[in-house]
Amino acid sequence: MKKTLFLLVALALTTAGTSFAQTAVKATGTDAKQTARHYGKGQKGPKDPAKMADHKAGKMAKELGLTADQEAKVESLMLARQQESATLKAKYGADRKAGRTEMKAAHDRYEAQLKTILTPEQFAKMDKMKAEHHGHGKDGGKMKMKAKA
């Protein structure tokens, strides 16, 4: 009798635990905004350009200290860039060399527009972060080894 009762209680707890694990917690306030920006790492298939633009604009706002007005402008600029990039990728497909000049021109236009939105300090900080991200930072992108004690 005790074994059966114990098994039923264990089964009920296991079932209850897994059902609670599957329910989504509704985020509020800033958490909701962060959740909306997260577009799913590891997501398969094409990503939504609007979600990607929102995510990137939010990341820039956090790292560069953008105002709400700047963030809105950056987000619309990112969305336009995402859509233009998708169009160029569809146009040239696997032959990236053929569309390189057009892609470079689009990138230069984007940078010029971004420069008008950001302050000179924010733009310089973005350039510095971009250089470090691409391995052109102060250590040349090389990993530092810990000294042996």
UniProtKB/TrEMBL annotation:
Residues making up the signal peptide according to the UniProt record: 1-21
Keyword Hydrolase: no
Region (Disordered): 31-57, 130-149
Keyword Signal: yes
Basic and acidic residues: bias regions: 45-57, 130-142
Keywords: Signal
InterPro entries, sorted: Cpx_auxiliary_protein
Name of the molecule in the record: DUF4890 domain-containing protein
Organism: Hymenobacter cyanobacteriorum
